[in-house]
Amino acid sequence: MRHLLPCLLGASLWLLSLYGEEEIEFLKRKEGDQLVLSVSNGAYLPMQVRLSGALAGYESDHPFPILATLPPRSVPDLARLTPAKGATRLSMKVSLEAWPGDPGRVPDTNVTYLFPWAHGVRHAVGQGYGGAFSHQGLKALDFDLAEGEAIHAARGGIVVRILSNFTRGGLDPALISQGNILDVLHDDGTVAHYDHLRAHGTVRRLGEHVAAGDLLAYCGHTGYGSGAHLHFEVTRARAAEKPLAIPTFFAGPGGQRLVAEEGLWYTALHPGKPPVKAPPPIETLFREWSALTNAVARTGSVQLRGEQREDRFLLYIQNGYDRQITLKITLESKNLGPLTEAGNPVLCPALCETLFGVYRVLRAGEKIRYGMSYELLP
Question: Mapped to the 3 state alphabet, what secondary structure does the chain carry?
Fold first, then answer.
């Protein structure tokens, strides 16, 4: 994020809409024969500024360009200009640039983040680091949350930016800058960005301290994207450059530190919450799901029906004959990995579904394709 603003001597105030609802202000005031230059940082995080320019007839107590890191919500003086002896003409032409964050802070690489949704809930990574859709060269994650789903703090800190007035979402490039956002500054100077929030969907205020796991906002479909989801990234400040997105590690079962991978599903585990019950063995689920079959109409044919349950995909054989049949199945599929199958050949009761297999969805967000050929056995 870089902003450039020309400044002429005749002006008294410059406003730079830099970080959400806050402003960077360039100010000057007279003190005797001196001209004092200052910058007001109204944001809730440090801001790095560079004041450049050319002076005629003035001497400055600090050489230009001046690079400084401003504390949050502060108004430091950057330079004092004194008319040079014998000067007959005084003029000044300067420019102001600003970047969020303190580049002198070093990220804590030992931090473990929480997956940013409710404890015990599973979600998939729709787009990972370097994702082909919009994450090329970017250490950012898109989590497949639904519209209105709660978003929780992945790490504690201070809320430093809130944008919540946008209402539109879609694949129009004009919407790239119209996603609702909440940013949290961490104690090591890094910032977590929670993007594409629901309009007016934040429950926090600027400057508020939040703990890991606290409710922040609700997911929406605002800004550039094909549907509702949460865009999450953590950035570190750099000297006179746009902040850099950095890798993050998330809390997994048994104290594991996980790198979230595109297409995989993860369960949020919040400290102090009840243990998350492990899912039953797939063989138990197969027996349970086998009992939930439906009757089918008499069609005189055999069909294949698929049903997705989170990262599991169930395939049912529908027997449209009014008699029991035995089939030898040849299955073709894409983006499915087998977990367990009923056996082959498979006995199919008349006018009824039979669960043929349970499969793992290999990559969330990618299309699932399946089909079969079969031999009707005597």
Answer: CCEEEEEECCCCEEEEEEECCEEEEEEEEEECCEEEEEEEECCCCCEEEEEEEEEECEEECCCCCEEEEECCCECCEEEEEEECCCCCCCEEEEEEEEEECCCCCCCCCCCCECCCCCCCCEEEEEECCCCCCCCCCCCCEEECCCCCCEEECCCCEEEEEEECCCCCEECCHHHCCCCEEEEEECCCCCEEEEEEEEEEEECCCCCCEECCCCEEEEECCCEECCCCCEEEEEEEEECCEEEEEECCCEECHHHCEECCCCCCEEECCCCCCCCCCCCCCHHHHHHHHHCCCCECCCCCCEEEEEEEECCEEEEEEEECCCCCEEEEEEEEEECEEEEEECCCCEEECCCEEEEEEEEEECCCCCCCEEEEEEEEEC
